[in-house]
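Appendix B, Record 12. Input sequence as logged:
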Amino acid sequence: MTDLSVTVGSLRLQNPIMPASGTFSEDLAKVFDIGMLGAHVTKTITRDIRGGNPTPRVCEVRGSMLNSIGIPSKGVDYFKSEVVPFYNQYDTPLVVSISAGSADEFARLCEEISVPGVAAIEVNISCPNIEADGKAFAMRPSTTEEVMRRLRSATDLPLWAKLSPNTGETTEVALAAEGAGADALVVANTLLSMAIDIRSRKPKLGNLMGGLSGPGLKPITLRMTYQCAKAVDIPIIGCGGISTVEDVIEYLIAGASAVQVGTATFIRPTAMVQIIRDLAAYVESQGLVGVSDLTGSIRDEEASDGIVFLEAAQ
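Logged structural output:
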């Protein structure tokens, strides 16, 4: 049997493929055996019930997608009474994505959802921070450190910090998350973007702007994955524009231990199943002991020297 197992901190996954938050639900269990995934990642939940953003919430752009869903949520009580029991049918680790508007709210929510059946908590620190003029926690090292320290004190479960591409301080934010107790980094969320209908001259999204996902995002988040993997000692979960096994392999070579698949599932609900099969075939064809041999295997020695030279010259 081809060894596709990987470790993300204290968690051992049967393979490195999992869904991105917001692109996966219990309904997919009617389409394929979701027990074959490396982990299950829930839609982002909030402490209170939320309705989400005004419509339209999704629009296509060339080769990719914009969304402004707005984190609709049925709240903590529904999560504990309905969602957790559903996923307890599977041996696959359950990762719960959470969002809040302040460090205090994040800590309270984290404590409430740290219940049996939850294997790890993915912290969506890419969401607006009401205490910092609405700028996402993950845009700055200081706010990243603050919220992660609060979360670390609220739970003993592994914490995965989901970073934002909307920052010019990628490695600084990554180091701040690691220093404050993150067990892994998810790199990264969607990129703030916009599209306009030239006939009506109105934005194509009801909330004016939204997050870019799909193939157009991949070069950015792949670069971030590489940078973060070089900067921190905790595992990286690559996320952004993954639709084929080749995309997965690139992320692993760049330094990711596992990956999340998002927009591709909207196009092909069984995309993750095919990727797992193709990944097994690739590992076997390369004569690798296991898929984990790919992580961080990029041959970047000469390129690194060039980068150092360019930075020194500026």
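Residues 308-314 have pLDDT under 50 and may be disordered.
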